[in-house]
Amino acid sequence: MVDIKEVAENIILIDNQLYSIPKWGSVYLINEERKALVDTGPTTSVNTVLKGMEKAGVAPGEINYIIITHIHLDHAGGAGELIKHMPGAKVIVHDKGARHLVNPERLMKSFASTMGERMVQKTGPVAPIAEERVIAVSGGEVFQLGGKQSLRILHMPGHAPHQLCILESQNNGLFSGDAAGILVADGRVLMPATPPPAFDLELSLSSLEELGKLKASAIYFAHFGATDKVRECIKVAMNKLKAWNMLISQAFNEGGFEFAFKKIKAQLYSELEPAKGSEALYQYLADGIVAMNVTGLLKYYQDRKARAEKVKR
Ligand SMILES: [Zn+2]
């Protein structure tokens, strides 16, 4: 059974059962005169997305746009497979990610090397998308879907260089991708997502600040669902990033890499405690997300340190 829910006027959340975990991956269907999907999930979620659309009464042939918040495979891996069902659709993606969807070999290799073979199995293969079906954007573009609904594309790097957010005019809601972190376990845990290889702390913070200035009425998280606690979420995300940065800096000075690694890992585990009621999700967060965040944070920290030392010399 696929779960769908109208989270705002004409905006339908489809739970794409990401990695077979409920309430972990959101695909949003914007059901206007012209229709759009925001993210697709990986190839292993494509059937669930199609069923969700059917339940919402929208045929795949009616879709005009598939908007990719960023090209990480849990968001975009299924786009190539999904678009085979959508002859009228084009894919909107950041300029920095476009060529990787047209030719996904490098993307798949990078995913396998950072996430491991087990995740490759869970994600499935990535089908290429014909170049003429891709619209590369860099932020500032507007796509009109109906009389009251237009989508403004915003470039919000930090989580990844190709991260986009989308502000919709009808409800003043923001599709945040992973730019504001993940909000899971029915809102009990908000955690920034800081994956390797390209997480950037300073860019993340400045993007969050920009998102705050939009004064959106709602955030539609990619992981997972909608909230109207916009200011609070952005503030928590910023505060956590700053606190983690401080913790890593201090631990590094005190006891070096291994010590910093242990410290930040313990910190992230403690922040996940409130998700313990949702077993499958908690397992995935504790195994997958903690490792990913710790690796991304430390890589960023070390790169930054190396850059600073180079400047000093
Ligand atoms: Zn991501």
Topology:
Elements: E1 4-8, E2 11-15, E3 26-31, E4 35-38, H1 46-56, E5 63-67, H2 73-76, H3 79-82, E6 90-94, H4 95-102, H5 105-115, H6 117-123, E7 134-137, E8 142-144, E9 150-155, E10 164-168, E11 173-177, E12 182-184, E13 189-191, H7 201-213, E14 218-221, E15 225-227, H8 230-272, H9 279-312
Parallel strand pairs: 4-5, 5-6, 6-7, 11-14
Antiparallel strand pairs: 1-2, 2-3, 3-4, 8-9, 9-10, 10-11, 12-13, 14-15
Helix pairs in contact: 5-6, 7-8, 8-9
How would you characterize this protein structure?
With 313 residues, this protein is an alpha/beta fold. The chain has two domains: 4-238, Ribonuclease Z/Hydroxyacylglutathione hydrolase-like (Metallo-beta-lactamase, Chain A, 4-Layer Sandwich), CATH 3.60.15; 240-312, no CATH class. It contains nine helices and 15 strands. The chain has helices spanning 46-56, 73-76, 79-82, 95-102, 105-115, 117-123, 201-213, 230-272, 279-312; strands spanning 4-8, 11-15, 26-31, 35-38, 63-67, 90-94, 134-137, 142-144, 150-155, 164-168, 173-177, 182-184, 189-191, 218-221, 225-227. The strands form three sheets. Strands 1-2-3-4-5-6-7 form a seven-stranded mixed sheet, with helices on one face. Strand 8 and strand 9 form a beta hairpin. It is globular. 47% of the residues are buried. Bound molecules: zinc ion (ZN). Zinc ion binds at residues 70, 72, 75, 159-160, 178, 193.
Attached small molecules: zinc ion
* Strand coverage percent: 15-25%
Written as H for each helix and E for each strand, in order along the chain, the element string is EEEEHEHHEHHHEEEEEEEHEEHH
Return residue spans where pLDDT drops below 50 for at least 5 consecutive residues: none
Helix tally? Answer: 9
End-to-end separation in angstroms reads 60 Å
Sum up the overall morphology in one term. globular
The CATH superfamily name of the largest domain is Ribonuclease Z/Hydroxyacylglutathione hydrolase-like
The CATH class designation of the largest domain is Alpha Beta
Rg, nearest Å: 19 Å
Name the strands of the widest sheet in spatial order.
1-2-3-4-5-6-7
Tell me the structural class: alpha/beta
Percent helix, as a range, is: 40-55%
Give the overall pLDDT as a whole number: 96
